[in-house]
Structure formats: C-alpha cells, structure tokens
Design goal:
Layout (H helix, E strand, L loop, with lengths): L1 E5 L5 H14 L12 E6 L15 H12 L4 E4 L9 H10 L14 E5 L7 E5 H5 L2 E11 L3 E3 L1 H4 L8 H8 L3 H15 L3 E11 L7 E11 L2 H11 L8 H8 L21 H9 L7 H8 L2 E4 L8 H5 L5 E4 L2 E4 L9 H5 L5 E4 L3
Helix pairs in contact: 1-2, 7-9
Length: 357
C-alpha cells in the first residue's frame, strides 16, 4: 500500500496534516503499532548538515511522526548511523547539526551486534544495537537521486542500520551496483520496516545524495513495502524504475508488483546523476577497454584547494585510495573505484568531480 499527500513546506501544522492523511489512507497508525511495541524511528542522517540543505530527513517530519506514535502509548527510540564513525562524538555532531538535539527519544547507545543471516545473500551484518531493541521499525527517508544507486529513498536508507565504518566494508566488497543492490535488498528484507515515510517536501536531484541541487516536490508519502514505496517515488520523480538497479532486481524477485497508478498530479522530473548515463554506456564497452573508459569518461573525485585535511574522506574510502599528506587529501587513482563516498561525505565541499585524465 502507498499513499501520498501534498505538503508545501515544513510548517508543522502542514506536516502533521499531510502525515496524518497518509497514515489514515494506510489504515491508521494503530494498524501498525501497538502499545506494547518498542518502535525504532530510523531517519536519513547521512552527515552533519543543516536540514535546509535537503540532505537529511527534516526534523519537522520526525516531530509530526512522534505526535502520531504517542497516541499509541508505545516506547519510541530514534537512531541512525551516519557515514562517519558510530560514536558519541560523531553522532552528537550529526544530531546537533541536523536539528535533532531536542528529541529526548534519541537512543545514545553506540554499540553494535552481529546479525547472522544464514540463508541470505549476505551471511553476516554488523547492525546498530537499536535494531535489536526494536519490535518495529519506521523508516523515515529522504527523496533524492544517488550517484551510485540512481535513487535513494526507503530501501537505500536502511543501509544506515549498518554500524559506522562497517558500511565502508560493503562498498569495498561490492564494487558493482548490481552486487551492492543485492546486498541492499537482503538488508531491507531483514529490517522489514512496518512503515516507510518519505520526506518529499524538498528533495535533491543530480549529484545526490549530498552534492545535488535542492528540488521541491511538495509531498509527504508513506508505504508499507519499501520496494513498492520506492517504485511509486521513482514515478513521482520521473525516473524509470527499471533504471534503478535495486528496484529492477527486487521486481524480478517478486518483492513488489508494478501498478498502473501513475501519481501524475505529484510528478516533478528530477535531473539524473551523471553516473546513471555513464553506467549504461559502460556495459557496452569491451572489458579490455574499460579502464581507459573509466579514466576518460567517468567523473573522478578530486581534492579542492579548500581541503583542511580532516581525514573523513580517507576514513570513508572503501579501497584506501586516499591518504592525508601535509594536511591535504591525496587520491591514488589506480585504486579509486568511483564509488563517490569521499564526495558524499565531505562536509566542506572540498571534493569535486571532473572528467579526463
């Protein structure tokens, strides 16, 4: 099931109205949450960023959701693992800059545990401890394009359940978008959120998830299936779902069904990331020419003069292609796999993208 409602701004009464309507159309919050439940609210808190930059889930959405949840009498915890370390120092900075410091429901346990998944594509995950504390998960994501997965919405947001730098390991292990997508699908099936709520008041287009342009959608959406939610959001964002690798695979696995419902009244075409076109062309290139193709056509990250040498890009690089030399980051392009983690995580916008040798 999927529901979408107009919401022109983050004015709290408007957010509450739109969210309440979405939930009502799905059967009401009481259909999903009971008084005895411990509920984990999992927002998109990619990095420390002002909520007005449209990188992270806006706190007004969380405020509106809390009001609905408290009607049920359930226990509520809020938690996420950003792209940096999963530690008090790192996450306190994330919660503060993203406008979450006032939420007393934040669970500040920064430990993680192993989840064993014997029959899955991935046999073991290191997940944040809050996952194990919760009876239900409500996945509160942001509508954005993504340079690697084309779309980041409900399904991709669950990647934040993986604790801290363990996410770097998965980027290193799964260098192709298809393999990475299989991992995301596996994780989404484990998490199995009972609700997926989309912050689509302001989204991001182009070089998302953190360096694109703000795009006004003016909606809040909700769905019971994260793959179906993303399928409908791809329609609203003007993206062919077959060009979103994880949605294409999820559809083949029968994890959601296509629908004739087009949500045309809410549609606003999003500009695609540069990598989406390049990845299609890459598959047509003979394997012995792909390294030259990579160097000439695919945008590569480069370090700008305003780099302060903080080291976050080096820490986030899954193949250890970045080192800090004399207070500046330096990229070894013979190792770089164009995953754009450095570009995504740099809060100083000191990592740019360029084509050519």
């Amino acid at each position: 099931m999927f529901s979408v409602n107009e919401c022109e701004s983050y004015d709290l009464p408007k957010v509450r109205k739109a969210l309440k309507n979405c939930l009502k159309n799905l059967g009401g919050i009481e259909k999903f949450i009971k008084k005895s439940d411990t509920v984990l609210i999992k927002p998109n808190l990619l990095m420390p960023a002002n909520p007005n930059k449209s990188i992270t889930t806006h706190p007004a959405i969380i405020t509106g959701l809390l009001r609905e949840l408290k009607k049920t009498g359930c226990k509520i915890i809020i938690a996420d693992s950003s792209s940096g370390c999963y530690s008090k120092e790192c996450m306190d900075k994330v919660y503060a800059e993203c406008g979450y410091s006032g939420f007393k429901e934040i669970d500040r346990d920064y430990s993680s545990k192993e989840y064993h998944n014997a029959k899955g594509f991935i046999k073991k995950y290191g997940l944040i401890s809050q996952f194990f504390k919760a009876d239900k998960i409500i996945n509160v994501c942001k509508a954005k394009t993504h340079m690697f997965t084309t779309l980041t919405c409900a399904t991709k947001n669950l990647f934040g359940l993986i604790a801290g730098k363990d996410k770097t390991y998965f980027h290193s292990r799964f260098k192709t978008v298809d393999d990475f997508s299989k991992m995301l699908i596996d994780l989404a099936l484990i998490a199995n959120p009972c609700l997926n709520i989309v912050d689509g008041v302001l989204g991001m287009e182009g070089e998302g998830p953190s360096r694109g342009r703000i795009k006004k959608l003016g909606i809040i959406a909700a769905g019971t299936n994260c793959f179906e939610t993303d399928y409908f959001m791809s329609k609203i964002m003007g993206i062919d779902s077959n060009k979103v690798p994880y949605l294409k695979i999820a559809k083949e696995k029968g994890l959601f069904k296509e629908s004739k419902k087009d949500c045309a009244e809410f549609k606003k075409d999003f500009k695609m990331p540069h990598s989406e076109l390049i990845s299609k062309l890459f598959k047509l290139i003979p394997s012995n020419l792909r390294s030259l193709y990579n160097d000439f056509f695919i945008k590569k990250p480069f370090i700008k003069d305003n780099c302060i040498g903080c080291g976050m890009c080096a820490e986030s690089c899954p193949v250890k292609a970045i080192t800090i030399i004399k207070g500046k980051a330096k990229i070894n392009y013979s190792k770089c796999v164009r995953c754009y983690c450095c570009h995504e995580i740099c809060r100083y916008e000191a990592v740019g993208l360029k084509k050519g040798f």
